[in-house]
């Protein structure tokens, strides 16, 4: 079963709950620091949804999802199961779909799911308000942060302003974590290929260039990624 990420106010003792005025700038600074301390994109997303509930006025639940063309939705991080339940039931056939609007706008809101056509799924779960903010976008997919509340009309202009400021910090932190992960993977791949090349040099009595070319040919012949083949050789250096 997937882990549940339940929000507790004590997780962020340095942050004021739903900050306003001068508190907001300080709270966003602290939140940004906590986001940038995460080590992977996944941990960035988990931290972001917990912070969203703490910082965004009126938010009770939050999730981050990827939406692909054709309205396929995959929830990446969530504060509790009601978020996953709400998003997994979305079929893309609802009128004026909340997430559909984000292909053309950075923000979309539901004022009252019981009054707005097409949001019976949210209303059935007791979620009356929703605020969705675009984190990433390209031609094929969106990455979206959505906050939910049980009362109608929760996400006003002030809540939206705070949400947009916060989502900008999340987007930057997510990009940074993704780059770090890619660089780490590239370093591991380089080391693996270097070790595999050294094994082939010793085993076959050839130089580094010939060993690398042999590795590339084997990768193409077996239709296996170079790093996966190198991992096999390093893991079993005496195998044929």
Secondary-structure topology with pairs:
Blueprint: H1 22-36, H2 41-55, E1 61-68, E2 72-78, H3 81-88, E3 107-110, H4 120-124, E4 129-137, E5 141-149, H5 157-204, H6 208-222, H7 226-235
Antiparallel strand pairs: 1-2, 1-5, 3-4, 4-5
Helix/strand order: HHEEHEHEEHHH
- State the shape: elongated
Q: What's the oligomerization state?
A: single chain
Q: Quote the distance from N terminus to C terminus.
A: 40 Å
Rounded to an integer in angstroms, the radius of gyration calculated over CA atoms is 23 Å
Q: How do the strands line up in the largest sheet?
A: 2-1-5-4-3
What ranges have pLDDT less than 50 throughout 5 or more consecutive residues? 1-10
Helix and strand content put the structural class at: alpha+beta
Biggest sheet layout:
5 strands, antiparallel
Mean pLDDT: 84
* β-sheet strand percentage: 15-25%
What is the helix content?
Answer: 40-55%
The total count of strands amounts to 5
Q: Treating each run of at least 4 consecutive H or I residues as one helix, how many helices?
A: 7
Describe the structure.
With 240 residues, the protein is α+β, with helices and mostly antiparallel strands. It is elongated, with a radius of gyration of 23 Å. It starts with 21 loop residues before the first helix and ends in a 5-residue tail after the last helix. It has a five-stranded antiparallel sheet, sandwiched between helices. Helix content is 48%, strand content 15%. The protein has helices at 22-36, 41-55, 81-88, 120-124, 157-204, 208-222, 226-235; strands at 61-68, 72-78, 107-110, 129-137, 141-149. It has seven helices and five strands.
């Amino acid at each position: 079963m997937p882990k549940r990420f339940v929000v507790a106010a004590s997780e962020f003792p340095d942050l004021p709950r739903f900050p306003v005025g001068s508190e907001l700038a300080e709270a966003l600074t602290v939140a940004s620091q906590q986001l940038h301390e995460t080590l992977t994109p996944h941990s960035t997303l988990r931290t972001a949804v917990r912070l969203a509930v703490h910082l965004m006025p009126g938010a009770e639940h939050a999730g981050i999802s990827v939406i692909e063309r054709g309205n396929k939705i995959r929830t990446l991080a969530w504060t509790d199961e009601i978020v996953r339940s709400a998003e997994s039931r979305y079929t893309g056939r609802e009128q004026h779909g909340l997430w559909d609007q984000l292909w053309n706008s950075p923000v979309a809101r539901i004022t009252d799911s019981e009054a707005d056509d097409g949001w019976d799924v949210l209303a059935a779960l007791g979620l009356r308000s929703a605020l969705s903010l675009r984190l990433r976008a390209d031609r094929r997919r969106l990455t979206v942060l959505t906050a939910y509340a049980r009362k109608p009309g929760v996400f006003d202009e002030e809540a939206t302003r705070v949400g947009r400021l916060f989502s900008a910090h999340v987007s930057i932190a997510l990009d940074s974590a993704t780059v770090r992960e890619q660089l780490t993977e590239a370093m591991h791949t380089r080391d693996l290929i270097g070790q595999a090349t050294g094994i082939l040099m010793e085993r076959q009595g050839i130089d580094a260039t010939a060993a690398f070319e042999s590795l590339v040919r084997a990768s193409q012949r077996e239709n296996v990624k170079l790093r996966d083949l190198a991992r096999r050789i390093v893991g079993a250096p005496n195998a044929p």
